[in-house]
Amino acid sequence: MSVYIVGAVVPLVLTLLAQSSKKMKKRGVPVDVGGEPGYAIRNSQFTSPVETAWEGISTLAELFEQACKQHRDKYLLGTRKLISRDVETSGDGRSFEKLHLGEYEWLTYGKAFEVVCSFASGLAELGHKKEERVAIFADTREEWFIALQGCFRRNVTVVTIYASLGEEALCHSLIETEVTTVICGNKELKKLVDISGQLDTVKRVICMDDDIPSNTLPLVRSGIWTVTSFADVERLGRGNPIDADLPHSSDVAVIMYTSGSTGLPKGVMMTHHNVLATVSAVMTIVPDLGSKDIYLAYLPLAHILELAAENIVVAVGGVIGYGSPLTLTDTGSKIKKGTKGDATVLRPTIMTAVPAILDRVRDGVRKKVDAKRGLAKRLFDLAYARRLSAINGSWFGAWGLEKLLWDFLVFRNVQAVLGGRIRFLLSGGAPLSADTQRFINICLGAPIGQGYGLTETCAGATFSEVDDTSVGRVGSPLPCSFVKLIDWPEGGYRTSDSPMPRGEIVIGGPNVTPGYFKNEEKTKEVYKVDERGMRWFYTGDIGMFHSDGCLEIIDRKKDIVKLQHGEYISLGKVEVALIVSPYVDNIMLHVDPFHSFSVALVVACQPAVEEWASKQGISFTDFADLCQKTETLAEVHASLVQAAKKARLEKFEIPAKIKLLSTPWTPESGLVTASLKIKREAIRKAFSDDLTKLYA
């Protein structure tokens, strides 16, 4: 009996101790800064922003060289061997590519450095000059990282472009930066050929694949482009070595084109100093990060989150194995039956992830659990409830002996989905729901570091610490950043708000970039330098600081919002397109970042809707009754879809569900201004129950 008493008392004591320590811990503390008045917080462990974690290292090129010399014989970059590429046809006639992949094949740090140096020399031998820019337009892979580091050794600025970027945005990015050399895969090369007539500055294309598409031959024969394989460039450089021309810390390393929230994307200029500051800061946050860590790289390297992460892993002597979102797990859509997924083969210890990936893991596990019956289902539910109670109650309980027991009995099969050795996950790019965060914590048995940052701040702003088990927050400021809230009276947010200060988030520090390429007007609008020389970026996001110095994102100044999978939607643009429907008197699009679709509140145009109902022979008692009918909702929604297609909106911009309202919005109701512009926040509050039901 005494064993049971001890078993109950010890966890209780540990819980009380842990709760007490958590209450006292300050993760961020107020700091006196210059610039616009506001409420500023710094990391509690650092009095001034971190710029570099390595003495004598001020550029990414120097950091890479140092790591390669320190870990020469250790594995660095790995790519799975492609055994076969097959096409399978489904029952409805659709074709799907399936890959049979083997084990990872590796480059050591020493060999990778040799390849990088050879590629840098080959690039120069091809005729690319230092002052010209290179664009990398490809999916994440080993050659992407080698090309990046090769360009850095010649102090060549790299323009990064998403492989999925549309034709118009692709043209804009290449033309604006006057790129002369494009490095891409054969899939992307086919896209380039289609727009070749618009690319006056492009002279050279380097294809990462040996099977160069045949449609490039006319361009080569006419002397418009030279097209060379990646391997041939490396061989050329190996036979004609050229000394490095290393950059300075203030030189622009990357011009990173965003995916474009509205209109054409903007190119954010990042110096070596900027990116190194974020890399150095995250180094201090991830627990026990070192040469034993294995990192699975599959997110776009054209995104600063992935680019920074891979440089961090290299800096500590870790291992990078490349994969893709479609081959990540054993059930990936591109994985041939019987072939293991990337995570199963690599068995990584750390990963970055976007919420959509984690949501997919959660939904897959829940589906399998719900299909179970009897003891297995009851055991899972019991284990989950016990682990949830432990995480919510105490740090010691969260990661103690009971965790090991439940991991062994229940959760190890779930953990095997990502290789079984994950010890830390970093989530970024979009908000992570509290439900998913808890589910992943419990089932994968690993903490999730949720971060907040922007391309303009090199992904660095805040990051949650490993012992912070709260949800819905994005942590305290990274050591490279000051984070300040300033008043936004128009939105009703002030730093004097009680119980917690609220306002627009402004980020300062060495990670704040110089601005937008060839866009001085926009740069001046959102970047400011204070009287102390500190550079600040005005994010447009609205935040709230908790008493321990951790930030929570609660709103956004502008009407540009992001869906769960990272797609941006301009609410105003979509509303303008949809209001042309004859059935619409007014409309407000609504996006919940924890969902993959949008919804809309539609004020129905009474004459048009009643006329349609009369023609259809639909009877109704009053207009409110008509607006509730299934047939009416279907007709109005179909009209919105038609208007959206006419305006060439993307599929994700079209509201998946609507609520039809019979009462007009007027200035007197407080839902529109005197000039009849919608008051988004007032409408959201007035119809919060309806919006909740639309997402149910």
From TrEMBL:
- In what pathway does it function? Lipid metabolism; fatty acid metabolism
Q: Which domain of life is it from?
A: Eukaryota
InterPro entries of this UniProt entry? AMP-binding_CS, AMP-dep_synth/lig_dom, ANL_N_sf
Q: Which Pfam families match?
A: AMP-binding
Reactions it catalyzes: a long-chain fatty acid + ATP + CoA = a long-chain fatty acyl-CoA + AMP + diphosphate
Of the GO CC terms on this record, one is: endoplasmic reticulum
The answer, when asked if Ligase is one of the entry's keywords, is: yes
Q: Which cofactor does it need?
A: Mg(2+)
Q: Which residues form the signal peptide?
A: 1-20
| One GO molecular-function entry | long-chain fatty acid-CoA ligase activity
Keywords associated with the record: ATP-binding, Ligase, Nucleotide-binding, Signal
Q: Which Gene3D superfamilies match?
A: N-terminal domain of ligase-like
Presence of keyword Nucleotide-binding: yes
Q: Where is the AMP-dependent synthetase/ligase domain?
A: 100-517
Q: Can you tell me which family this protein belongs to?
A: Belongs to the ATP-dependent AMP-binding enzyme family.
What is the protein's name according to its record?
AMP-dependent synthetase/ligase domain-containing protein
Organism, scientific name: Rubroshorea leprosula
